[in-house]
Amino acid sequence: MRVFNITIAGFGGVGRATAKLLLSRRERYRKVYGADVRLVAVCGSRSGLSDPGGLEAERLDTPAAGLSAPDFVAASGADILIEAGPSDFRTGRPGLAYIRSALAAALPTIDLVDYSLKGCELLEIEGILNATTNFLLDAMTTKGLGFDAALQEAQKGGFAEADPRNDTEGWDTACKLLILANFGLGADLTMDELAVEGLQSVTGDRIEAWRAEGVVPKLVGSLTCIDGKFRAAVGIRTYPLSDPLANVRGKDKAIRITTDAMGDTIAIGSGKEPLATAAAALKDLEYILSARVAVPVSISEPSS
Amino acid sequence: MRVFNITIAGFGGVGRATAKLLLSRRERYRKVYGADVRLVAVCGSRSGLSDPGGLEAERLDTPAAGLSAPDFVAASGADILIEAGPSDFRTGRPGLAYIRSALAAALPTIDLVDYSLKGCELLEIEGILNATTNFLLDAMTTKGLGFDAALQEAQKGGFAEADPRNDTEGWDTACKLLILANFGLGADLTMDELAVEGLQSVTGDRIEAWRAEGVVPKLVGSLTCIDGKFRAAVGIRTYPLSDPLANVRGKDKAIRITTDAMGDTIAIGSGKEPLATAAAALKDLEYILSARVAVPVSISEPSS
């Protein structure tokens, strides 16, 4: 049986969930792929664990201080590196791989374009790609909360950062949209080409006016393709209640993809984090196992 | 460049749309797969066309009488047979392949389970899998039409059969659900194990009561998996207006898949027929081209 040695870099909520889910699926990997999948190392920013024979779940709760940093990862002998560290859109670190996996979390996006809509010509994409802003807008609309009160509620729930601007100013949505455009659809867009609007302009008065009109506001990344040329933007769009996108509530995400031959295809995802992101990362692992070739899934430098 | 000879059996709306879409994508197949895809034969129940060098779109409008039947298909020299004939659930002809392609029409189902949710454990599936019954229920609910009036409207629009019982009694939904269960999820269910209810019990009074309650009725195929054991049924379920499934209107279809790690994933499709079904069939063709191996996509006897 072929052995696959896995290292997980980044050992916060997502990294831990990924490690545990991976170990719980070892029997599946054996049966389905004939693959002996071993977790040989995990490392966070200050601690880690390593064992060439494979770590077991009960050891994950006691990482050793000092076992960290890129050299540790390189020395682990991994065939496959799963990058689960934090990402910073401003510096670009730890890079694309993590962000792609975050994008996939419980919401098929590139999957849909690559697989379910294969062969179709893309006309438009609209996506509710950021859970935090969707939660905030939903709370402001349905509970009548102001932005600050909604944000406090999200921060208390642990799904808004202390500095929430990556989310609320639209940059997380923009980043995901760019990845979808450039890696899913072969566009060649840069952040400079996107008009990015966040929640800054959403006042109580506007919410009231939308309610009176019977429409629901969403922070949407949109992409159109006209004569092979892509245009992308992030901003508020409103939808009537009969539109499935209007009913994407709380921390759920959604995407609508319009193609020439298949009309509109909508996907809505509502996985609980960090488990859903862990499952998305391990979905990529299964594609690699099914190709029966060990290649690194991460092209980024591990976060340190 | 490798040549792939294609024969399309069944030359009604879907067969014609598939032939035209295939020919319009020949350049794509060359560029993306290095494949010279030729349509060498098409045949309906009473007429057909064949040309070992490949048919062009303009010839499709004038099929010759007599060129039909299984022997004709066998003699066409095709590497790949696309089955697009009518299906009859009672006799099982022309068989599974056509039904699988019909199931895929503009709605990712097996795709989602196989690809986007790979590795997750399935807990439940609910699907609005039949366009005709969704149209009928939607017209009865939103326009206040009776069943007969709604059916007449659907028949006038060409998307309900003269004998609509395959759809209205739930058999089409049941058949699609079985395929999804058995071929997508490895279940081993037979039609006898399904409780199948159609629209027969939906009276104006029940519609009125649902409206008063603020819920929307849908004909749903449902599948649960408890301790590895599958249970399937077809019947009316009702959803509150805030549920995305309540907002699947007209001839649209949808599926909600609940898994252990990714929560609920919903897909909604609204492709226009017969183009969407043609595109779904050609999606399967692209998987074959990308594997660079010519295998028959149909395991059924062609319809005659």
Task: For the structure shown, list the relevant keywords.
alpha/beta, 11 helices, 36% helix, 304 residues, six-stranded mixed beta sheet, homodimer, 11 strands
Q: Which series of helices and strands of chain A comes N to C?
A: EHHEEEHEHHEHHHHEHEEEEH
Largest sheet of chain A: 6 strands, mixed
Please state how the strands of the largest beta sheet of chain A are arranged side by side: 7-9-8-6-10-11
Count the strands of chain A?
A: 11
Percent of residues in β-strands of chain A: 15-25%
Oligomerization: homodimer
**Distance separating the two termini of chain A:** 34 Å
Which ranges of chain A are low-confidence, i.e. pLDDT below 50, for 5 or more consecutive residues?
91-104, 293-304
Using the alpha-carbon principal axes, give the shape of chain A.
globular
Rg of chain A, Å, rounded: 20 Å
Pair of chains with the largest interface and how many residues each contributes: A-B, 44 and 44 residues
Percent of residues of chain A in helical segments?
Answer: 25-40%
**Nearest-integer average pLDDT of chain A:** 85
Structural class of chain A: alpha/beta
Count, helices of chain A: 11
